[in-house]
Amino acid sequence: MNLLTKVWIIALSIGIIIYLLEKIRKQKYIVKFSIPWFLTFLIIIILAIFPGLIDKIAFVLGIKEPTNAIFFIAIGILINNIISLSFSISELKKQSIRMAQEIALLKKGIFNIDGEIDNSKLIEVITLLENNNMDRIDEK
Asked: Is 0.70 surpassed by the pTM of this model?
């Protein structure tokens, strides 16, 4: 790898890291979601500074060509980032379902703002749900 290529790789990686930090500072991006990307670009910078490291990694992994090792590492990093984002999305989906349920219960008057449950209304709504009387629930 020639010097110009190294400089471009390092400059672009640092530029992306600065961009992510700026988005975090302006509160347009959450730190939790940016950590895998920071690690990705730090690995890219390290591999650009020490290109011989790719040869050693390829040898350890049993890969004959260093370029194939680069693709293998890149795919592994991207899969890791996708999985971590999928976990975050799943967690947010659970939270939004929970909030929608709580809002619905608040609208029906089963919950008070203090979090106390009105048992009589709860029993009435459960009974109507069990009897599939959705129209009567909307009336209440």
From this structure: no
